[in-house]
Amino acid sequence: ASSSPALSSGPKEVESLKKPFTPPREVHVQVLHSMPPQKIEIFKSMENWAEENLLIHLKDVEKSWQPQDFLPDPASDGFEDQVRELRERARELPDDYFVVLVGDMITEEALPTYQTMLNTLDGVRDETGASPTSWAIWTRAWTAEENRHGDLLNKYLYLSGRVDMRQIEKTIQYLIGSGMDPRTENNPYLGFIYTSFQERATFISHGNTARQAKEHGDIKLAQICGTIAADEKRHETAYTKIVEKLFEIDPDGTVMAFADMMRKKISMPAHLMYDGRNDNLFDNFSSVAQRLGVYTAKDYADILEFLVGRWKIQDLTGLSGEGNKAQDYLCGLAPRIKRLDERAQARAKKGPKIPFSWIHDREVQL
Amino acid sequence: CAAKAETVQKVSDIVKEQLALAADVPLTAESKFSALGADSLDTVEIVMALEEKFNISVEESDAQNITTIQEAADLIEDLVQKKPAAETS
Fold first, then answer.
1. In a designed cystine with A50, which of A7, A54, A159, A330 is the match (CB 3.0 to 4.6 A)?
2. How far B63 CA lies from chain A's nearest CA (Å)?
3. Does this complex have an ipTM over 0.85?
4. What is the mean pLDDT of chain B?
């Protein structure tokens, strides 16, 4: 960044300026194209590998579940009774649970942003919208699978009668308008490390909302969240396989990308959320998720620990000096985060109760 | 009032150890942790090491405001002074 952009082969930086319709929250300096152009060839040469190893993790549409499988059938005579039963079960769920479920749903509903994010990545982007490359096929089919998640949760929450749909819909519109700032720099190394982490994070959080729905006696909602969690697990398997392959081809570049991503911290996909009222909406939602144990700082450290083990970071050999530093950093990071989290938890003061517009301004403990 | 040179020295030693800095890296009271390569994790770890060394407890909100060796030393002396009163209350 110190030399002239025209001469520099390194990342290019674009100043972020405040304009209308830009995110209500500050985004980082935008770094572009940090992967050296010659490495694009690595991804081109992985085309066949991706066809045989990646696309097998997609599910045939004919064999896929659809939101309608879990919802009252509006064409059936029993529709009204089924809706009544759904609402009776939803009555047993506490407000704080709904705040977390709504936040998860809004995160899923910002799917256009995530497809965009995948298509920012050099060497793997869908260049036409109907590109026949394995990478593009994966991204479109992945998006199509994911699209069912927000759809299902949205319809469930609408029918539950417990939430302010208009406020939720506004939050979704704000969020998609804001985008996200994952700092993946058009770099597929960074991009696939990010998605590996995120798919596991969503697997964990949907798994936890499933478990808690069951504890509150709502088996149907538990099934909904559990089914979504199972998709996320399958997607995690696919993305971690890509990165595993990158470690095989380019261990030094991949370990440095992993360390870089962790130094920048993995931001949650919906970190720019806003409902038109609360400037700390994402932090407040995150606090409730942490308190309920749906997604916690310890989960973050556990995911990191899992990925370090999954990609056998400890066993990497023949790295450069910088690569060795990245390896040491990654192997020591999860225990450090856990230690700090224990300190923070030990000192955590009880948070205030604040109103959430998503549930008609009813107050929830942070 | 500014912290004693002795406290500043003790803090410098801990920062040096925590960030695994080479012996010849020059440290002054004004040295910023971030300029020494510390990220937010390192900063909290420095605070934790200081708590242990001086037998004090730093509030979470204060911990985040410490950016230099001088600021750390000032806060430590402040906390050490307050300590007896805090213990009898």
1. A54
2. 11
3. no
4. 85
